[in-house]
Amino acid sequence: MRDLTDLRREILRDVLKCSYCAMCEWVCPTLDVGNGNRIYGPRGRINLIVSYFREGSENGVLKESIYTCLICMACTQQCPAGINIAEDIRKFRTFLTQ
Ligand code: SF4
Ligand code: SF4
Fold first, then answer.
1. Nearest ligand 2 atom to alpha carbon 71
2. What does 52-69 look like in DSSP terms, one character per residue?
3. Residue whose CA is at the smallest distance from ligand 2 atom 8
4. 94 Cα–ligand 1 center, Å
5. What does each of the 98 residues of the chain score in pLDDT, given as a tens digit?
6. What CATH number is given for 4-96 in this structure?
């Protein structure tokens, strides 16, 4: 199994490029389903991933946010910082199955 320290570093390196500009949000199909609650959008998911790595807190909200992502890549195509948001979310799921 892949070293989780490397995986954590790889995800963090990417998501920390986020400037929280919100350009990714308007294309996200799950943001609408979640009534605009940002935890159901790409920016909110990135925020939760950063918090998890910094504070180590796992909770139901985090899991629901991460597992309701469709990994559809729509957000990734919008990001001016070139963050592979969908792939980061997919990789991050590894940490929720430990
Ligand atoms: S578009 Fe990119 S930089 Fe902007 S909020 Fe989304 S992930 Fe962050
Ligand atoms: S990959 Fe996930 S966060 Fe990005 S637009 Fe699709 S459902 Fe939203």
1. 1
2. HHHH----HHHHHHHHT-
3. 28
4. 22
5. 568 999 999 999 999 999 999 999 999 999 988 778 999 999 999 999 999 999 887 778 999 999 999 999 999 999 999 999 999 999 999 999 75
6. 1.10.1060.10
